[in-house]
Amino acid sequence: MKSFKLIVHQPSFSTEDLIINLKDYPGLKEKDVVEIYHPENDYPRLLLQVTKVDAPGRGRDTISVEHSIATTFQLRTFADVYVNIVNVADVALDSVELTFKDQYMGRSEMWRLKNHLVSTCVYINKKIEYCGGAIRCQVYEMWSQGDRVACGVITEDTKIVFRSSTSMVYLFIQMSSEMWDFDIHGDLYFEKAVNGFLADLFAKWKKNGSNHEVTIVLFSRTFYKAKALEEFPQHMKECLQKDYRGRFYEDFYRVAVQNERYEDWSNVLLQLRRLFTDYQKIVLQYHERPNMEIPTAINSTAAQGNFLEVLNMSLNVFEKHYLDRCFDRTGQLSVVITPGVGVFEVDRELTNVTKQRIIDNGVGSDLVCVGEQPLHAVPLLKFHNKDSNLNSIDDYSMPHWINLSFYSTNKKVAYSNFIPRIKLPPRKSQEPLKKMYEDESKGKLLKEDEYMHNSIFDYDAYDAQVFQLPPAHSTCVQKVARTKKTSVAGLEGISRKSPPASIIHQRKMSDPDIHHSLGDIFSNCSKYANETGSDATDSAISISRLSPRSSITSHKPVIRTGRALINPFDPSHVTVKLTSNRRRWTHIFPKGPTGVLIQQHHYQARPAGEPASTRHERCDHDVSSKENGSTINNNHPVYQVDGNIMSRKRLISTSGALSVLGTIVGTPSTTNNASLALLWGATGEQEWTPALTTANRAIGVDWKSLTIPACLPITTDYFPDKRSLQNDYLVSDYNLLPDDVNADFAQNRAIYKEPLTTMEVFKELVSQRLAQGFQLIVGVNENEVIESHCPSTHTPPPSKVAPQCGKPANSAPTKRYLLSIGRIFHKLTLVGSTITVTRYRPRHPYPPFNIHYRYRFHAPNHDTYEVSWVAFTTEKLENYNWNYMDHYICTRGDTDFALVEPLKYWRFRTLLLPLNNPATKQILEDESTHCDVYPTPTRHDLDHLTEGFLKMTESYFNKVKRPNKQRQVSPTKSLNASQGTKAAAKAVLERAQSQTGESEDAYDDGVIEPKLKSNATLSEIRDRMRHPTLGVGFLQQTVSLPSHTFVSMYSIHWLQANMENVTCQKATSIMEKLLHEKMICHASGDMLERFVVGYYMYHILPQKKDEERELTDYVKPLGDLQSFENEWMEVEVLGPRSPILHSETNSGAIDISGSSPVVDDSGIPAFLCDHIDPNYMQLGNGDMPLYKNTHLDIDVNNKSDRIEWGHARYQATFRPDQAYEMCIQWAVASGNIVAELIFGWARKAQSCRLQMVPIPADPLALPFTEKSDPLRGPIYVPLNEEPLLRGKSALFEGFPEEEWAERLFLFQEAIVGRFGFIKCTVESTSHAAGVGDHLYVHVTGNMFILIPTTVKSEQRALRKPINKPLNASRYPVHSEAAPSPHEGYITRHVSGKNKDDYDNSRRMGFLWSWNHMISKKWKWSQTTATGDEAFQMRMLRDFKHFCANQEQRLSQFWDQCWEIQERAKGIIC
Known about the structure:
By secondary structure, this protein is of the alpha+beta class. Helices cover 23% and strands 19% of the residues.
């Protein structure tokens, strides 16, 4: 210990926290941890690590501490401080909580960050940066030895909990009948939920700076009083469901807020109150129609509501997190707010599905009850009793996977502190009672011999029998009874050598974790006694249930079935066998003073078994958080029992339940012996005591979980014991030798990439498993695990269950990781250069579930509750192809191992759109203007877009460079042949220079080369192309580009500028001839590649007559097309597609300029032209695939601590009048680094006059799409054609009938074009490619429109390869039309409320949906409308008005189009 003078420094002076001179403190070394404190203060001492060893430069015996740290720890500048070297073990932290905000942090990054932090010193509020600042987080809270501390050292064993301030949060408010009841303070439960709980929650979010993406849904279930389906009118039948008691019901969902982030949530509270006012009326009277009888509708109670269905709805969204990967949030949370008390009646199968999905997906699920806390343990699920017999027993389950909170207002009632826990039944009049007694003879009451007589009944004896296992087939019960011990039937029949102090249990059967028949159980009955020492009378009687699916019933009341029940009023000692599911979340809980994991919002009165006098107050979260930058430490009283001070480690044993995990020795390694957890509660270690229900010690609200939800921890501590591994698991293994694999692949690779080392591969295998939801198992005694079942590392033995083997003889360095998810365990072992992957999967996996569910939902901007449907399925995690994934990693994503859908890789879809549109600006600036003011793009606009796209592809996607001495002639300002003057040529060159930013005075001598003659030979053209100054402009030669590489599009422009009388078509045919004569060739060296105009790379082949020198300098192409395509992005550029047939144009040649798409040359709208192209609605184009893939270098700034890569899937063709799609895909990359790459592109796109926006994987979320979002759906906007008919029987009467559908489509396309929508050819997500998905996206990227079409089936044949002769002429044209599935959706939409006015003519319309992927991050100064909510709402409102023909706008547009057509006809005539 030594005294120093303290000075402080700003971060600008030094980034180090502590500067100290080693000479001043003998014995101090770098990396030592020191404590710094004022001798007179009892404030927490500061711990810092010595990193920088320079002198602070202020004389001797001075240390300098960073300013903000000194403030936090109340250290005074220039005062004396003591500095003392501490032993790291004394200040090691048990757990640390890190918070982060507005970023996506994957689980692999969490693990790598954790490793990076080991043996560093942290203190409260410390900011941590990782991956070159790409990942930022802050220390929030630390626990050590049962207390919250202000600083400490992270060791290998420290648990790190990541909490996200920007999560995806679903708030579900259960609008059951109790919402309209009053609580004891006279408030409606709804007011308590919204004005109370939600208002408090939003205030906490604001205070904490949380910025969650929130969806708020009101939900309820309506029961109908009806005996049979016939009682319902037709329009009600499509969504009715029937429950196990034969009651008819419908579930309603009202989405109030969808994926929003607000600074201020007060408006939302207002909106919720408005919805509340008539919610019940709308839902209950939803189906009422004039003059129609419908069954009476009743709102269900909370207990009978659709609680599990709601959780599954959110899971359907959450489990797709890898599809729509948002880069500014991490974490998923479902919160159900119910007016009930935490008891729900549920279906057993749905419970199993929900439990498995919640646990596997690692989703946080919170239940907040605003009802009064009952006197029994909750949450409690009561299973539907499908047995109608009177005496059949109800079965309960206590889900540990739901985090429960009770919200109570802190109002006080003046006259009493009594809290009623039970609602009184409503008052009934006396009449019905009398009637009931009179009717007794008619059999209303039970017959004498069926009901239980009070007089003969001993209730206590009955209870004692109910909650004890039956003595069936077990001989050890009598013996045990004498010694006050209970026997237990061991469910899995596994005899463990277990310490006497642990209670052995079998599984509760109704727990979805295991499926057995009763026979199995009793045949395996194993005899274990529960020894709890002297305290036997109060011992924890082990209670477990064996509940086969069909319960065994009996009429005599006391004879019991073969199972014991849970007693919800006293679950405190009930334990269950430990499973990996039970321990999945436990590492987010801190260890309390008693050494057990605690949930901080349970105001636990005292450790069980303590006299009531000493109680340690729960350290409330608001107190302990950083007010005035200080941390309040909790001083827990020392517990005294019988005058001996108990050690913390053994304290809990006084309760007589030693089954609490990790308390016997206090280290996690005891997990395997104490293989039990308490039945109740999320941690499995905190007991339920009746004290938890008393007023001042109730379960509170877990504000922390609701404000900064924890991400699924990356570690857990459960691994099955040897016996269980052998009996219950199948083992398989495979070896991976990265060096050998890569040696093979390196030979086949055209482009050499540094392969990953064996160690890098090994770490990446762990990373990938973590990323897919696995957890690292820590604290398990490794030797036991390894000895018992390691297949020999050299030659894997034939697949026996668990081959026994000793340690391998060779002493190569060995690294080992154990991981688990659900009941699947992986062991990764690295010995020398061999990686062995051993997989354990359950011998009896769960049966797969697939539950279909229909419901009605009302999304924002919709008018009605639409019918929708969804499937809840459990995923078979054991089917994931890890062997394939491991090879993908090992080979660095080689094309042999393409990423496929079942691998669940991450992806991010983007569109490139035109950047600025004057119409958007006009709409934003002028409130009164209509929104259909978007002009048809001119030829000039389209050329600019093409040019911008080529620049984007060259400079940013392909990152190719051009040598300085070369220029490319500007494609737009190409010269006409007549202007062969020097001035014009010079102007072109100067423009080209100004565009590429290079300038050079080569042409000042005034000599200009004459243009090539129009009859020049091919070799003359070739020579001119290679001219050093006038040539076509070559790309810089790189590893995979040969010499003289040029871009096809620029060569066409070059020919137009350098040759007389060359049109675009002629230039293309010249280049094709050059290719045919083998003078040029595709840059991959593949001779078979045709000449494609666009950003395609070709090179000039050397000819025999070339000089020797050139031949020796020539760099050969790769000669491998696949490798070349995997390196470079090549895109065909086409002109706009025109729906009008031009008789004179040659269909083979591609006219880049194209004609403007919607209007004929004379200005006639396409839908009124005489000749329309019957194939226009088809999406395919010739021999080009729709998409191509290429390898993507992700970590462009070298920030990561590992090698990262990804892939780009991009559209093979670019058309300037359409949106261009590119999807970024990755598995081995950090989310934040991918985000930096994409945001970099988006910024650069603006300089190319383009805007890059993200789009969802499923833009419309129609219910027939697999994995569609169940609470999202398109808005149907009908097109009112009535005013356009004007006496005609059909809209396009006068045109051939087979063209009507096509003309209607073109008319709709013209309308969306006026509103600024452009075509967006994306992969169809919803159905077979035969039906065209005509999707349009707004130029701002804010919304999509789908024009539903009916494509005729003989046209669908055209999608087949074109070389087959089509016998279309032989058949009549009117074939059956194939309706699109969208049509069914629209039909249902239109039917809406008034079924009567529905007829076929109203089927025309549009489906409109929002782009929910656009967040504030995508709003640039140049694109103010993107993500602007007011602009979006205005567009929708105006579009609806236009389609409904308000102010006659639709008819005016129709008439104008006809006028133009008639005028043009007049001119022709």
